[in-house]
Structure formats: structure tokens, C-alpha cells
Amino acid sequence: MTRNLKSFHSEPVGEKISGVLFLNKLDGSQNPIDWYLSKIAGVPFALRNLITFQRVNIEDLAIFIEDPEGDLEGLFSTILNDSRISKNIVWLGNILQLKKWIQSNPNQVYIFNGSALHDKRKLNELINSHSQNANELQTQFPINPENLESFLLGLFTPGSNISSEKPQAGFPIYVQGSKKAEIQKPEDFQTLHELQVKGSGLNHDSLITRICSRPASRLLTRAFLNTPISPNQITCISFFLGLASAFFFFQGAYGANVVAATLLVFSIWVDGADGEIARLKFMETDIGKKLDIYGDNIVHFLVFTAIGVGIFNKTGETIYLYLGGLAGLGGLTAFFLLSPILLKKRSPAKELFHISESGLEEKFANRDFVHFLFLVSLIDHLQIFILIAAIGANVFAGFLIYSRFCKLKTA
To answer: Which residues are bridge partners to 2 per DSSP?
Structure first.
């Protein structure tokens, strides 16, 4: 059975390739349906691998499992009909179908061990970069089609030879995957689940984010993972918490300020969970990234302005109205200059194919200031915060303007 769906976002990387997800039949103690549909970080095991293969630009995909009675295909319809599958998926129920599919395929064919959870960045290196450092790649070797049946049945071992060179035409390449990511017993599902959740942060997370925010956001991620709540809905929850924070800051009283700062801390925890869930469940969208970035900056503008108004209401000193306005204006200017850069860098294709250190802009464009804001709210010294915010936001905006001018001048 073949599913023909529209293509996924990707970047061209040279020659086309095809892939086979090889699912072991397992022994009589395990049901293959229950096994391969067991969820890891909210996504069925086999489906997680198939989507990962799509992310590394595998042209055509097939699922192979020895199925003499022909009843497994219908039971795997959950995977085959998933909306996140957007390539051609071919069901192969016997070895003869697999051989015919490989022989008739014009592309290089990779056979992936379906008992291992494959990592998209390692696969990208393996398939698209043609790296010669085999020790850093997953074990791979070409299989002579004459030995294919014996190999898949476990009766033939090609030895420990690892080759990263292009094999002879018609020779599929078997990819074993990492031993650490291989599932051999039921307990391994939970182990890999935890590894996926722990690795769901961003590569440009600051030290403060890793220490103060990610542990809390991952608790929320674990709570949301197996619910129907979407990442965009979680983003909206974070946004409304931010709006409530601005409302309490506007009042200016000490108790209201503490409540406001607490709500803002909860907002960034929830804001971290939406991205983690989107990455874990392969639900990243352009509108989701825009909603996240735009929502954050609207909240920052309103919070800065509300703090200035709140301090003015409390002290009667007009200077805090100006400082709040300056902080809001500086933040808004920085947002207009920085948002196109962030949207471009956080696209799935960029994260996969252009992994690089975050720029100075990204390192400053975080929400670490919320923790400082919480502390000064507790000691009732918001005047210090709004002064620093007014100066810092405009210095940052000035830096972005200068950077943009230098780039335009160079161009």
C-alpha cells in the first residue's frame, strides 16, 4: 500500500535516496503492533523514525516486516494515515517484495534497523554529509542482495567492516543505529522517552534558562505530552499569563507586583513547554514560531509600559512614565529588527542543515530578565528594573540598528 502526500519542508542536498524501515517480527512474547506503536515522547516508536527519515530528505520510504498472513498492514494504518507522514510510504510484507522494491528503485537504498530510535542530526551527517569519520557515525555497511534474506533473518553477519564509501549499484546500505538508542526490552521505551524530553531544549539556551526555566518547562512538557493540547494552544496560555502579568503591574501595589512577576515566570515556563512539545511531536509550524515570537514581544512591551505606569501611580513621579515608555519602545524596536532573523534561524531546515552557534543577537534576545524582575519585585525595587530596562532595551536596539547598517553597507 502506498500513501501519496505532499512533500515536506526541506533543502536540496544532492542525490536522491530511499529508505526502508526494517521491523523485526519479535518473539512470541511481544505483539509487534503494541511494540512499534508504543509512544516515545508522545509519538509512536515506528512513526517517530519515519518522520525523522523525512526530515533528512529521504525520497521514498517503505516499511518492511515479515507478514505472511497479511494482517499487519491494516493494523499499522495508524502510522500510514498520520498527517505528519508526507512522503510515499510503501508496505512490504515479504522478502520478495523487498528485493523487487530495491532492485527497481533508481535511488540509493538505506535499510534502517527498526529496533533503534534514529537521531535526525546523526542521520543527516551519515546520509548527506558523506563524512569519513565512521566512528562518529552510526554503524553502516553495504549488503549484497544475495545475502539480504539471510541477513534480515539473522542467519548471516557481514562482519565488523564499516564503509562510508558509495557501494556498488544495487547494494542497499544497512544502518544499525546507536546501541544506546536500541529498544530490546519494555523498560527501554521509558529510558528513551526521558532522553528525548531532556534533549528538547534549544542549542542557544543560556545558562540561566538551563538552570531556572528548562527544569520547570519539562515538568509541564511531561504533563502535556500525552494530551490533545497543541503547541499553539500552549503558546496562547503563555500569552494570556503575560497579559495578566501586565495588568497586575499596572496597579503598582507591592502585592500586585509580586503576583505579576510570578505570573510572568509561569508564562516563560509555559512558553518553554510549547517549543519542547512541538519539537518532540514533530509539530513545528511557521505560524507557531511567529505566534511564539510575536506573543513574547507584545507581552514585553505591555509589561515594561505597565511597570512604568504602576510606579508612577505609586510614587507620582513622571520620570517613570518616560522610563516605561522608553523600555517598551526599545523592546518594540528590537523586536521588529530581530524577529526576521529568529524566524529564519529557527526554521526546521536551518536547525538541521545549518547547525551553528547562536549569534550575539540571539544570546541577548532571551527572557532571562524575568528572573531578575521577580527578585526586584520581591524586594519592592521595581524602580531599579525599569531604569535598567529603559537603558538596556534601547542599547540593544541601537546595536541591532548598527549591525543592520553594517550588513547593508557590506552588501
So the answer is: 90
Q: How does DSSP assign 170-186, residue by residue?
A: T--EEE---GGGB--ST
DSSP 198-226: HT-S-TT--HHIIIIIHHHHHHHHHHHTT
Distance of alpha carbon 263 from alpha carbon 49, whole angstroms: 38
DSSP state of 365: S
pLDDT per residue as tens, the chain (411 positions): 444 333 333 344 456 888 999 998 777 667 888 888 899 998 999 999 999 998 888 878 999 988 777 677 777 777 778 888 876 688 888 888 898 898 888 888 999 999 999 988 888 887 766 554 544 445 677 887 778 888 877 644 544 444 444 555 568 888 888 888 888 888 999 999 998 888 887 766 778 888 888 899 999 999 998 888 999 999 999 999 999 999 999 999 999 999 999 999 999 999 999 989 999 998 888 898 889 889 998 999 999 999 999 999 999 999 999 999 999 999 888 888 887 777 776 655 555 444 444 555 555 556 788 999 999 999 999 999 999 999 998 998 888 888 888 877 776
Query: What is the rounded radius of gyration, in angstroms, for the C-alpha atoms of the chain?
Result: 26
What the chain holds in terms of domains, given with CATH numbers, is 2-195 (3.90.550), 203-410 (1.20.120.1760)
- CB-CB contact of 58 with 17 (8 Å): yes
Query: 201 near 210, Cβ under 8 Å?
Result: yes
State phi, psi for 311 to the nearest 5 degrees: -65, -40
Name the residue among 15, 16, 17 with its Cα closest to residue 112. Answer: 17
CA 60 – CA 92 distance, rounded (Å): 13
- Local structure of residue 118 (DSSP, 8 states): P
Q: CA 153, CA 149: separation in Å to the nearest integer?
A: 6
Burial label, 14 (beta-carbon count in 10 A; 0-12, 13-18, 19+): exposed
